[in-house]
Every structure is written in structure tokens, then in C-alpha cells.
Amino acid sequence: MAVWLLFAVLSCVLLPDPVFGITRHYTLEIKMHNVTRLCHTKSLVSVNGQFPGPKLIAREGDQLLIKVVNHVPNNISIHWHGIRQLRSGWADGPAYITQCPIQTGQSYVYNYTIVGQRGTLFYHAHISWLRATVYGLYCVLWGKSRELKNIGDQKTDPHKENSDVCNEVKVVIS
Q1: Residues 78-98 as b or e (16 or more Cβ within 10 Å = b)
Q2: Number of folded domains in the chain?
Q3: Which of 7, 63, 129, 147 places its Cα 20 to 30 Å from the Cα of 104?
Q4: Does residue 164 sit within a domain?
Q5: Coil, helix or strand at residue 165
Q6: Per-residue pLDDT reduced to its tens digit, 99-142
Q7: How many Cα atoms within 13 Å fall on the side-chain side of residue 144?
Q8: d(Cα 38, Cα 81) in Å, to the nearest integer?
Q9: Alpha-carbon distance 47 to 32, whole Å?
Q10: Confidence of residue 62 (pLDDT cuts 50, 70, 90)
């Protein structure tokens, strides 16, 4: 009897709560993108045609399925900076440590659940020089999961919960 009680308590503590979270799907296309500044055009690596990459938004308890498609000539992997990978260490992103890098023309789906975390974080490439060029904002909001509409949008009421958590932020990585 005591063993079953211990098992039940540990299951509640260690396993993510599937009741409150939803599954969020994102696709990150890593491609070369031409940018013109001051009459000079340069090719840089972008995420979904953006530099920095798109903002990812989730809530505690959400399961994330993030498909990363590599269209650049370099291998790549993505690290979710600040996300504790509980029972999903293979989704942490360091190439050759927790996963093989994503090769040119290939894709990989990162699958993990956010457990007991919130805040403004970021994701970035975790291989070679790409770690300084491929990155974006990652927001984990608090509370029960629900459809996230207008979070970070200028039309959002600034007095409502989480309205200023995911506003645009410039992240400088040096």
C-alpha cells in the first residue's frame, strides 16, 4: 500500500500536468536571406525570413512541437535557452551532445513540455558561428493555458495579465 501511495505522490510531482497544457506547433525554417543596408546587400541566415527570428509564445504546462527545417549549407541545432528539459534532454539542442545536428535539407521536431517555468527567454543556434546569427524571443507566460491572442500586440490592454511580458525586445549576443 505504501509503495502505491509513494508512486502516486511522485507521479503528481514529477510528471507535467496534462490537464492544463495544450499542444503548440511551430515551424522554424532556417534559410539564407538577402538584406540590403546602406547600399550593400549581404546574405545572412534567418529564421522564417526574419532576423531576429519569430517570437514563440507558450504557457506553463504546454507541450511544444517545434519543427526546425534546415535550408542552409551548414548543420544546425537549436537550444532553448533557459528551458529546463525535464525528461526531454534530447530536446536541449547542443549539437553532438544531446542530439546530432540537423543536416542540410533535413528537419527535426523538438518535443518537450514546459514544467514550472515562466519568463522571457530566447532560443539560438547551438553550433559553430550560427549561434550568433540564428536566435529569437521565447515567452513562457504564467497561468492556465488558453488561446494566446494579441499577446505582445500594441492593441493589448497594458493592465491585463502578461500584456507586457512579450513585447518586442532586442537581444544582443556577443
Answers
A1: bbbeebebeebeebbbebeeb
A2: 1
A3: 63
A4: no
A5: coil
A6: 899 999 999 999 999 888 888 989 999 888 776 778 888 888 87
A7: 3
A8: 33
A9: 9
A10: very high
DSSP 99: B
CATH number of domain containing 22: 2.60.40.420
9 occurs within a structural domain: no
Distance CA(141)–CA(75), nearest Å, equals 31
84 membership: H or E segment, kind and range: none
pTM: 0.72
The whole-angstrom separation of Cα 45 and Cα 7 is 48
Angle at the Cα of 136 from the Cα atoms of 74 and 97, rounded to 5 degrees? 50
The label of the residue with cell 540590403 reads 36
CB contact at 8 A, 122 and 134: no
Q: Given CA atoms 131, 132, 134, 140 in this order, what sign does their dihedral have?
A: positive
* Rounded average pLDDT over 81-106: 85
Q: Rank 8-12, 48-52, 167-171 by mean pLDDT and report only the highest.
A: 48-52
Amino acid identity, position 128:
S
Per-residue model confidence (pLDDT) at position 5: 64
Residue 129 belongs to what domain range?
16-141
More confident residue, 27 or 134: 27
Instruction: Write down the mean pLDDT value for the chain.
Output: 79
Instruction: Please report whether residue 146 resides in a domain.
Output: no
